[in-house]
Design goal:
By secondary structure, the protein is mainly alpha-helical. The chain has helices at 15-54, 73-79; strands spanning 60-62, 68-71.
């Protein structure tokens, strides 16, 4: 996931430098985890859209106010609009 490289490790580190390095590592760990989760969500969303568009039935996704968010490829081709519409 990530590497923290420290140059000149033979140097004796002060407590202040050690605390600073620990703080950076503590901030980096959650950032890397969030990036990993975001990537998983992107893949899941892409997979869902592929399945949604592969279904031959006409499908409309809408919100609670009945605003159309998306139609699948079958319906889009039938009515002549792009599938993301």
């Amino acid at each position: 996931m990530g590497v923290l490289c420290v140059a000149n490790p033979e140097q004796i580190w002060s407590d202040e430098k050690k605390e600073f390095l620990q703080a950076i590592a503590a901030l980096a760990a959650p950032a890397l985890e969030h990036a990993r989760l975001f990537t998983r969500m992107e893949h899941a969303n892409r997979h869902w859209m592929e399945i949604f568009d592969a279904i031959s039935d006409f499908i409309v996704a809408h919100d609670s106010a009945d605003t159309i968010l998306r139609v699948n490829r079958s319906l889009a081709d039938f009515i002549g609009v792009p599938p993301g519409s």
